[in-house]
Design brief:
CATH topology: Serine Threonine Protein Phosphatase 5, Tetratricopeptide repeat
Helix content: 55-70%
CATH superfamily: Tetratricopeptide repeat domain
Largest sheet: none
Number of domains: 1
Radius of gyration: 18 Å
Length: about 180
């Protein structure tokens, strides 16, 4: 009896891990606050010494998912140059990789270089709302709130007004408008 319960528990755990892995592979599941999962490394705080040791250095032979995982979390932890090292090794320049190369580049202060990266990401996947949200933030940096609002409208058309990308860009636009008085 106990072994049946144990087997059911393992089966349920395998299903959860399988769903998490599938979700991590789908570009549309990434919000601006939740990144991809890696069962081996997620037990350590992202960016910590233990996490960095688990992930290892950017190197040939890492899968694009591994490179994105490391680059995403390093970028989200403010380690933009390190993030770019991983992301630049990705062989597939899909919307998510281009978006986070743009994000890290913009956060390093080069908004002009980030803009074409977001544009390329959106050319590959116009529905990748995370790229639209970051593009909107870039427009705010350039004092172009009308363009940021246009991206907000595009996000609303693609995922509604309750998705994380909409909420985040809407919050940034509101803060921008408050600061402008």
């Amino acid at each position: 009896m106990l072994s049946k319960i144990w087997v059911r528990g393992l089966t349920a755990a395998a299903l959860v891990l399988s769903l998490a892995a599938g979700a991590a592979a789908d570009d549309r599941v990434f919000s601006k606050d939740v990144g991809p999962a890696n069962a081996a490394c997620d037990s350590s705080a992202k960016g910590s010494t233990g996490w960095q040791a688990c992930v290892g250095p950017a190197r040939a032979g890492m899968s694009d998912d591994e490179l994105f995982y490391a680059g995403y979390w390093l970028a989200k932890n403010g380690r933009y140059a390190e993030a770019l090292t991983y992301l630049s090794h990705a062989r597939t320049r899909d919307a998510r990789v281009l978006t986070y190369i743009g994000f890290a580049t913009r956060k390093q202060g080069d908004v002009e270089k980030a803009l074409p990266l977001y544009a390329e990401a959106l050319a590959k996947d116009p529905n990748f709302v995370v790229a639209r949200a970051y593009l909107g933030e870039a427009y705010l940096t350039k004092n172009q709130p009308a363009r940021a609002k246009a991206e907000l409208a595009e996000i609303a058309a693609r995922c509604g007004t309750t998705c994380p990308a909409f909420a985040d860009l809407d919050r940034h636009i509101a803060a921008f408008e408050r600061a402008k008085g």
